[in-house]
Automatic annotation (TrEMBL):
Name of the featured protein: LPS-assembly protein LptD
Predominant location: membrane
Keywords, ordered alphabetically: Cell outer membrane, Membrane, Signal
Residue ranges of domain LptD C-terminal in the record: 306-678
Keyword Disulfide bond tagged: no
Family matches, as Pfam families: LptD (PF04453)
Compartments reported by the entry: Cell outer membrane
Cited PANTHER family: LPS-ASSEMBLY PROTEIN (PTHR30189), LPS-ASSEMBLY PROTEIN LPTD (PTHR30189:SF1)
C-alpha cells in the first residue's frame, strides 16, 4: 500500500493552527455551565454563503492534498497523484498540480476538474490564479449549475470569477440518454461565447442553433439569458397567423436602462394591415413608480386611417411640508377611434376596454388616520359599437372628498363625517339630463356591543344632498335638495360545537344574523341619476342599508334581513372545509324609490339567497350561489363553479352562470397530461418543473353561450415536454362583436435554459386558464452551490 506524505504549505499550517487554537466542546461546556439550559440552535457561518465576497475570500485558507507533496516555503508547492486544492468555493483536482504562492498561480495537468460554486469544468490542462480566477483551460467540457447547461470547447479563458470566454463551443441543456447514437435535440454552436455570470447573460458570436440537426437560427451575434435576470438586447420574435392581421411578426427589443428603469419596443409587421410600433417604459423611484405604454400604426389598411393608443399609470407621493405625504395617482388611457378595442383586442391593460378612464387623484391622510381627503378628476372615453351601444358615464371635473373618523368617542361610540362635492359633466344629447354640481354630507354614528358569541350594532346616519343644475329640470327647478335619516341595527349570534362528518372531526359553527333598516320615503323621481345603480343581490350586499350604489338614490326601507351561516372548521389547522349560507329580506312596506324606468318593489319577501363553499380536501373546491324565487319555483340567478386540482399540471375548472332571461353560459378550463390516457402518470417533480420528459399536455378554455347556442371564446392547445425543449400549439378565437370574432393559431418552441421562438403563447394561457402552471418556471429559486459540492 502506498503511504501518503504531506508537506503542508504555510497557509495550510496557519489554518491547522487556527483550528487547534479553537476551544474544544468539553472546554466550552466546562466554561459555561449556566448556558446548558439555553435552546440549541444552528449558528450561521460565512462559509455557507452562496456568494463569498472578494475581501473575505482572500482571508480564507488554502488546503492541498495528494499522494506526494513537496515544495519550498513561501514559493511553490508540487502535488503529484490525486492532487487536490481547495479554497472557499473552489475545488481543483488533477493528476499533477503546481502552486506558485507569490503569483497565487495553480498549474494542473491530467484529468483536471474545477468546481467553482457548483459550475464544473473538466479538461487536460489548466493555468489559473486562484483568488482572481484568471487564467485558461484547454479543451474543456463544462456544466453550469443554474440551468444545467453543458458543452465542449477548444479553450476557456477565465477573465475573473464572473466572466469567461469560451471558444469553438457547443451549448445545450439536453441531458444525455443511455442508448447508442444519442445526440442532443438542440445545440447552439458558436465561434465564441462570452459568459457573464454577474449579469447572467451569454453572448455568442458566429452562432448557429440546430434543432434535430436542422439549422433554425443562424445569427452573427446572439445574446441569451443564463437566468431570468434582466438584460438589454433583442428578445425572441413572436409569430402567429391571425384572421384580422394576417401573418403577424413581432420583434421585441429590451433596453435595461438602469436597475430602476427599462424600455421594451415592439415593432410588429401585420401583412393585412401594415406596421405597428409599440413600446412600454417602466420606472421605479423611492417616491414614485409607473409605466407608460403606447403604439402607433400609420395608415392601417383595415380602416384606412392612422391608429394609435396610449396608457400611463403613475403613483407616488409628494412631500409638501405637511405632517404626512400627499399621494398622487394617474391612470390615463386614450385611443384613436371607436374600433380600436375590436381591432387591437389583444392589446395590453386598459387599451382593450370600451370604457377608457383618464383619472388623476391627489390624496392626503393625517398621521393618525382620522382625516382623509382627496381631489380627483375623471374623464371617460367611450368606444361605441353601433350594434351594441353603451351609455357613457359622467365625467367628474373635479371631485373633492373629505372624511373625518373617530373611534374613541364617549360611551363607546364610533362615527364619521364625510363631505363630497362633484361636478358631473357629459354630452346632454346622449344622457338626456342636465349636468350639475352635486354636494353631500353624510354623518354616521354607531355603538357596537360585542362579546364572544354575540354582537349588536345600532347605527344612525344622516344623508343631506344638494344639486345645482346647468339647465332647469322638467319641473322648471334649477336646484334641488334631499335630506334623509337612516336607522339600522345589525345583530348576530355565534354557536360552536364539535362535530364529525365522513370520519373527520370539525368545529361546526351556526351564525344567525338579523339586520333591520328603516329609511323614510323622500320623492327622488325628479332627481337626475349620475352615479347610482342597483347593488348586486349577493351575500356582500344583502346586509347594506342602501340597495343602490352611488349617492343619487337612497332606497326607502322598512325591512328586516334574516340570514344564517354554518361553517366546518378543521380544529388542527383552522382551515375552513365548508361554508353554507342562506339569507332573505322581509319587507314591511313597498319600496317606492327606484331608478328611472323601474317599477316600485312591492314584494314582501325577496328571493332566497343560498350559498355554499366546499374545500373538503385541497384537491377539490366548489363554490355556488343561487338566487331562488319561491313564487315561480326556479332560480333567477345561479353561479356554480368547481375545481379539481389533484397534483401540479392536473387541473380542471368549470363554471355555470345563469341570469334568467338574459344569459346562460358554461365556462370550462383545463391543463391535463395526455399521457394519463395510457397509464403514464409521470413524476411528481413539483410546480414549475414539469412531470418528466416526453410528456404531452392538453390545455384550453371554452366559453359556451347556452342561450344563443354558440361558442363565445375558445382557446385549445397542446404542449409537449421533451425535457430540454417544449413545444406549444394553441388555437384561439375571441368574440369582438355580436357577429364578429378573430381567430389565430400560435406556435412556440421553448429551448429550456436558452430562449423561446414563435408566438407569445405563455401569457394568453396564464390569463385564460385558472391555475395554469408553466412546465419550466424561470422564477424558481436557483439551485444552491452546495447541491453540487465536491
Amino acid at each position: 500500500m502506498l503511504r501518503r506524505r504531506f508537506e503542508l504549505t504555510p497557509l495550510a499550517l496557519a489554518a491547522i493552527a487556527a483550528l487547534q487554537a479553537a476551544p474544544s466542546a468539553a472546554q466550552v461546556n466546562a466554561a459555561a455551565p449556566a448556558a446548558a439550559s439555553a435552546p440549541i440552535g444552528l449558528r450561521t457561518s460565512p462559509l455557507l454563503r452562496e456568494d463569498i465576497p472578494s475581501v473575505v475570500r482572500k482571508e480564507l485558507p488554502t488546503f492541498v492534498y495528494g499522494d506526494r507533496i513537496s515544495g519550498r516555503t513561501n514559493l511553490d508547492t508540487t502535488i503529484e497523484g490525486h492532487a487536490e486544492l481547495r479554497r472557499a468555493d473552489t475545488v481543483i483536482r488533477a493528476d499533477r498540480m503546481e502552486y506558485y504562492q507569490p503569483d497565487d498561480l495553480a498549474k494542473a495537468r491530467g484529468n483536471v476538474r474545477i468546481n467553482r460554486a457548483g459550475n464544473v469544468y473538466e479538461g487536460p490542462l489548466l493555468e489559473l490564479k486562484i483568488d482572481s480566477f484568471e487564467g485558461f483551460f484547454s479543451q474543456p467540457s463544462y456544466r453550469f449549475l443554474k440551468n444545467n447547461a453543458y458543452g465542449n470547447a477548444s479553450r476557456v479563458d477565465f477573465i475573473d470569477d464572473k466572466r469567461a470566454i469560451i471558444r469553438d463551443v457547443s451549448y445545450t441543456t439536453c441531458q444525455r440518454a443511455d442508448y447508442p447514437g444519442w445526440a442532443p435535440d438542440w445545440v447552439l454552436r458558436a465561434n465564441g461565447i462570452r459568459i457573464d455570470q454577474e449579469e447572467d447573460v451569454g453572448v455568442a458570436n458566429g452562432a448557429l442553433l440546430t434543432f434535430f440537426g436542422v439549422p433554425v437560427l443562424p445569427v452573427p451575434q446572439l445574446s441569451f439569458p443564463l437566468s431570468d435576470k434582466r438584460k438589454s438586447g433583442f428578445l425572441p420574435p413572436t409569430i402567429s397567423l391571425d384572421s384580422v392581421n394576417g401573418f403577424d411578426y413581432r420583434q421585441p427589443y429590451y433596453w435595461n436602462i438602469a436597475p430602476n428603469r427599462d424600455l421594451t419596443l415592439y415593432p410588429t409587421l401585420m401583412t393585412k394591415r401594415g406596421i405597428d410600433v409599440a413600446g412600454e417604459f417602466r420606472y421605479l423611484e423611492p417616491s414614485y413608480r409607473g409605466q407608460l405604454r403606447a403604439d402607433f400604426m400609420p395608415d392601417d389598411r383595415l380602416r384606412q386611417d392612422n391608429r394609435w393608443g396610449y396608457s400611463w399609470q403613475h403613483s407616488g407621493t409628494l412631500g409638501l411640508g405637511l405632517p404626512s405625504p400627499v399621494g398622487m395617482a394617474l391612470d390615463l388611457n386614450r385611443v384613436s377611434d371607436d374600433n380600436y378595442w375590436r381591432d387591437f383586442s389583444r392589446g395590453t391593460g386598459s387599451l382593450t376596454q370600451r370604457l377608457l378612464a383618464n383619472d388623476g387623484q391627489l390624496s392626503w391622510t393625517s398621521p393618525g388616520g382620522e382625516v382623509a381627503t382627496s381631489l380627483r378628476t375623471l374623464k371617460w372615453q367611450t368606444l361605441q359599437d353601433p350594434l351594441a351601444p353603451i351609455r357613457p358615464p359622467y365625467d367628474r371635473l373635479p371631485q373633492l372628498n373629505a372624511r373625518y373618523t373617530r373611534s374613541d368617542l364617549p360611551l363607546g361610540l364610533v362615527g364619521f363625517v364625510e363631505g363630497d362635492t362633484t361636478r358631473f359633466h357629459a354630452d346632454r344629447r346622449l344622457t338626456l339630463q342636465p349636468n350639475a354640481q352635486r354636494s353631500y354630507v353624510l354623518g354616521s354614528i354607531e355603538r357596537p356591543w360585542q362579546a364572544p358569541g354575540w354582537f349588536v350594532t345600532p347605527r344612525v346616519q344622516l344623508h343631506s344632498t344638494r344639486y345645482s343644475f346647468d339647465a332647469p329640470l322638467a319641473n322648471g327647478t334649477e336646484a334641488a335638495a334631499r335630506t334623509l335619516p337612516i336607522f339600522s341595527v345589525d345583530s348576530g349570534l355565534v354557536f360552536e360545537r364539535p362535530a364529525s362528518y365522513f370520519g373527520r372531526s370539525f368545529t361546526q359553527t351556526l351564525e344567525p344574523r338579523a339586520f333591520y333598516v328603516y329609511t323614510p320615503f323622500r320623492d327622488q323621481s325628479l332627481l337626475p341619476n349620475y352615479d347610482s345603480g342597483f347593488n348586486d343581490f349577493n351575500f356582500a350586499t344583502v346586509f347594506l342599508e342602501n340597495q343602490f350604489g352611488g349617492n343619487d338614490r337612497i332606497s326607502d326601507n322598512n325591512l328586516l334581513t334574516l340570514g344564517a351561516t354554518s361553517r366546518l372548521i378543521d380544529p388542527d389547522t383552522g382551515a375552513e372545509a365548508a361554508r353554507f349560507g342562506v339569507a332573505q329580506r322581509l319587507r314591511f312596506k313597498d319600496q317606492r324609490v327606484t331608478l328611472p324606468g323601474q317599477a316600485p318593489i312591492s314584494e314582501r319577501l325577496s328571493d332566497l339567497l343560498f350559498g355554499a363553499t366546499l374545500n373538503w380536501t385541497p384537491q377539490w373546491a366548489l363554490d355556488t350561489t343561487v338566487q331562488y324565487n319561491p313564487k315561480t319555483g326556479r332560480s333567477e340567478r345561479s353561479t356554480i363553479g368547481g375545481r379539481y386540482n389533484p397534483t401540479p399540471y392536473r387541473v380542471i375548472s368549470a363554471a355555470y352562470r345563469l341570469q334568467r332571461g338574459l344569459s346562460e353560459q358554461i365556462d370550462v378550463g383545463w391543463q391535463w397530461p395526455i399521457n394519463d390516457l395510457w397509464g403514464d402518470r409521470g413524476q411528481d417533480l413539483g410546480s414549475g418543473r414539469g412531470q418528466g420528459p416526453n410528456r404531452w399536455y392538453s390545455v384550453g378554455r371554452l366559453n359556451f353561450d347556452l342561450k344563443d347556442r354558440k361558442l363565445v371564446d375558445a382557446m385549445v392547445g397542446i404542449e409537449y415536454d421533451a425535457c430540454c425543449w417544449i413545444g406549444r400549439v394553441v388555437l384561439e378565437r375571441l368574440q369582438s362583436g355580436l357577429a364578429t370574432g378573430t381567430t389565430r393559431i400560435m406556435f412556440q418552441v421553448e429551448f429550456v435554459g436558452f430562449s423561446r421562438l414563435g408566438s407569445s403563447v405563455v401569457q394568453p394561457l396564464r390569463q385564460n386558464i385558472p391555475r395554469y402552471e408553466l412546465l419550466r418556471d424561470p422564477g424558481l429559486p436557483a439551485p444552491s452551490r452546495f447541491s453540487n459540492y465536491d
